[in-house]
Every structure is written in C-alpha cells, then in structure tokens.
Amino acid sequence: MISIGILGGTGYTGKKLIQFCSNHPFVKDFEVYANTTADENLSTLFPDIEGMIEDKKVLSIKSVSFDHDLYFLTLPHGEALNFVPALISKGKKVIDLGGDYRLDFEELYLQWYKLEHSSSYLLKSKVYGLADFYKTEYTDAQLIANPGCYPTAVLLSLLPIVKNFGDDIVSVSCSAYSGTSGAGKSPKSEFLLTEMEGNVKAYNVNTHRHEPEILQTLYKNGFHSPFAFTTHLLPVAVGIYATSFIHLKNNVDEASVQKIYKQVYEESSFVRIRKMPPELKWVINSNFCDINVSVKEKKVVVTTAIDNLVKGAAGQAIQNMNKLYGWDESLGILQKEVKHAALS
Predict the structure, then answer these.
(1) What H or E segment, with its residue span, contains residue 3?
(2) In sequence order, what are the beta bridge partners of 264?
(3) Alpha carbons 30 and 4: distance in angstroms, whole number
(4) What is the mean pLDDT of the chain?
(5) Region of residue 92 (phi > 0: left; psi between -120 and 50: alpha; otherwise: beta)
(6) Which range marks the domain in which residue 162 is found?
(7) 155 and 47: one domain?
(8) Do 234 and 295 reside in the same domain of the chain?
(9) What angle do CA 267, 268, 269 make, to 5 degrees?
(10) Is residue 344 part of a domain?
(11) What is the DSSP pairing of strand 227-233 with strand 201-203?
(12) CB 160 within 8 A of CB 143
C-alpha cells in the first residue's frame, strides 16, 4: 500500500487522478495540493463525484509533505521544476504529467518551451512512460515523464510501422485533432462555446511543443524520414483523433501489417486494433487507444482515437504507476483485469 501526493490536482486531469486513486486497491491514502483552490473541499470543487470519493480539504502547494511514497504532478510548464528535484533527492517516486521532463536535452526544452531547465541532470535518468510500448523499462525508475496526449496517440499509431519498415519509409504526415479540455481549465475566450460550436481550426502549425517529443521517440526506434505534424481544435470537450499517412518505397501487404500491429500490442490491456476507423465516442472516459490500419499499395493510413484526459494523461499515469510497482497495469483503471485487448 502506498501514499500519494497530487500536486496541482484540481484541474481536469487532477480530477481523473483523484477518481483513479480512490478506486485503486493499493493506494492507502492521497492528498491534493494546489494554489488558488487551497482550503477548498473536493466536494465543492467536484460536486458530481461527491459520495464517490473521500471528501477532504485541498492543501496548499506551498507546504507539500514529503511523507508520501509517490507524487503525481499536473502543473503548468516550468512549475514542476520547483518540486521534482527536492522530491527525487528525498528518494520519492515522481510521475510528471507536464512537459518539463519529456525531452532529453535542455537545449530542446529551451527552444520549444522558452524556459531554462534548472534540473537538466534529471533528463537522462527519467523514463519516458509510453506505457503500452513494451520497450519501456521501469526497473529502478524514480522519475517518469508521462507522455503528452498527442504523442501518446501518434506514437502508438506509428511505432509498429517504424520498427518494421523504418528503412522503407519515404515520409510520414500526421493530422491530429483535440477537444478543448486539452488546453486546461483556465478560461480562454477562444474556447468559449460561442467560438467553438460548429467550428474546426488548425493551431500551432509547425510550432506545437509535442512535435519534438514525438520525433525524439521515433528517432530512437529507427525513424529517419521527413515528418509533418499538424494539430487542430475540435468543437468537443474531450478526445484526440489522429490520422497518420505513411508513404513507403515499396508495396506492402495489408495482412502482414495488421499482423505486426497485433503482435506489438498483444500484451497490452489498453490498445485495441479495430477492423474499422475508430470513433471518439468509443474511447471517451476510458484508457483505451483504438487503432485502425488501412493499406493500399505503398500507402498506409493509421487512424487512432483516445481520451486526452485519461489515456493521454491521468489513465496512462496510473498505468505507469502500476508498472513502476510491478502491479497489474489495469488496477484502478478497469473494474476487472483485461488481457490481450489488441486481439479483440
């Protein structure tokens, strides 16, 4: 049994973490720390889950206790730097859901986040927690960088192709779409219902911070081709939908590609290989990543759907915690153990 501290735990992702921790059989207790919502009751902040979780008062993030075993951080970019080094020095385990420790080099962090990295020595020792990719090694890990929502969807889409056809790839393009909750809980005029209803728009074209995160992992797995990544905003609250276009030098057989995807994810509880392109409504409020692969001669099209707050954030963080401690990775996420989701 472990004790958990959730730093910045009163946003959308924090709420999901609270729900998962409340249902986890090996979590004995948790505390929530925040800034502006300190001293508020959880039942006041989240009235819809009153009676489903233990009601408690939010503590000030300025007085974080070192008594917990593991810490989830759901803080704005740059703020995790104020806490992670001290937690690591105390021997604590940390899962950071922000972007401060995802990149391997401080120069990349400065380039894409416009911030100086004050604990770059931790970048090499951290584990990039793409939980369903079984090359990820958790032995002796103390700091896990939880992947971003877009990278989770895109990397799970592309890694089977990259690892098996790396030298044959001419180019990859990815068009990805997010619900407005991906921008967080702070009010912004461009995300008002009156602005987004019936609307779709591209944003951060060629400048999205998740692009170097995606490329970093692709490069490590043999990718060395041109890559394009464009993000869009959907008039929905939750979800990520990604369509990836892979152009190859030679024709490829669809049955062989389908077999590769099923083999790569045959041990995953949360990746489902679908016979048709997935829909957002199939994955909302779940930790599943649904993938469909279509092949025509030299072109492979992979469509993928996830919930950005669960699979793209809190759900994968709980999955990473489970793997870190050697527990079944579905604990606290699914009501019962599920195996071989890729074959369903």
Answers:
(1) strand 2-7
(2) none
(3) 4
(4) 91
(5) beta
(6) 150-307
(7) no
(8) yes
(9) 120
(10) no
(11) antiparallel
(12) no
